[in-house]
């Protein structure tokens, strides 16, 4: 019996992006059954390092020896506000405006802090964090009821933007985005199930 493929994903990727790929992969019937683990980025990184996962899709990765990492997709980061917010009619948000805002923080360990440090430069100024919530879902609910604004991955609010409960505002040039990564042990580079699944993700 063919071993099951163990796939890990950080929370935002696993909840908002990965599921259609898993469904299509299952429908193709070209590999073993897939077991998916969704957790925080640091936890998924630890599971991968400990050999508990065959493949991981994450928001950041420390380049460790013995692992192969490749870009999966570049995901825009957007400012979300409720429809009645003073910024809701903006077509984009510039760096200076963003740097003076108080933002709702989401799940720790996603790499957003490092991304903002690069975007605003070593000395800032930086946005402040008005509250620290534990997940993107909690952030979205807080923004919906008018507790503030936040920065999230664009894919995580696609449904809310479509139904009008949230407004997503792109960050003006040079923009904000995350390079999402697919990582697997170098020892599995020629392993057919891993090769097949990674190829399906990145095609």
Keywords:
single chain, 203 residues, alpha/beta, 9 strands, globular, LysR_subst-bd, transcription regulation
Quick structural gist:
With 203 residues, the chain is an alpha/beta fold. Helix content is 32%, strand content 28%. It has eight helices and nine strands.
Task: Tell me what you see in this structure.
With 203 residues, the chain is α/β, with parallel strands linked by helices. The chain is 32% helix and 28% strand. Strands 1, 2, 3, 4, 7, 8 and 9 form a 7-stranded mixed beta sheet that branches. Strands 5-6 form a two-stranded parallel sheet. The mean pLDDT is 94.
Count of beta strands = 9
Query: Would you list the SSEs in sequence order as H and E?
Result: EHHEHEEHEHEHEHEEH
Mean pLDDT: 94
- Unreliable parts: none
| Helical coverage, percent range | 25-40%
Largest sheet: 7 strands, mixed
Number of helices: 8
Assess the beta-strand content as a share of residues.
25-35%
- C-alpha end-to-end distance: 28 Å
Tertiary shape: globular
Secondary structure: elements and pairs:
Elements (H helix, E strand, L loop, with lengths): L4 E6 H6 L2 H10 L5 E6 L1 H9 L5 E4 L8 E15 L13 H5 L2 E4 L6 H9 L7 E5 L3 H9 L5 E4 L4 H6 L3 E4 L6 E9 L6 H11 L1
Parallel strand pairs: 1-2, 1-3, 5-6
Antiparallel strand pairs: 3-9, 4-7, 4-8, 4-9
